[in-house]
Amino acid sequence: MTRPMLLNAFDMLVPVHQSPGLWRHPESGVAGFDRLDYWVELAETLEEGGFASLFLADIPGIYDVYGGDGAATARGGVQYPLLDPLVVVPAMARATRTLGFGVTASVTYEQPYLLARTLSTLDHFTEGRVAWNIVTSYQDSAARNLGMSGQIPHDERYDRADEYMEVMYKLFEGSFDDDAVRADPEANVFVDPERVRPIGHEGRWFSVPGAALTHPGPQRTPLLFQAGASKRGQQFATDHAEAIFFSGGTPELVRGWVDGVRDSVEAAGRPRDAVKIFSLATVIVAETDEEAQRRLEEYRALVDTESALALFGGWTGVDLSGADPDSTLEYVATDANQSALASFTTLAGGRKWTVRDLAEFVAIGGRGPVIVGSPQTVADELERWQEEAGVDGFNVSAAVRPADLERFSRLVSPELRRRGLLPEADAVPAATLRERLTGSGPHLPAEHRGASYRRTSAVAAGRG
Ligand SMILES: Cc1cc2nc3c(=O)[nH]c(=O)nc-3n(C[C@H](O)[C@H](O)[C@H](O)COP(=O)(O)O)c2cc1C
Question: Whose CA is closest to 222, among 430, 53, 432?
Answer without folding.
Answer: 432
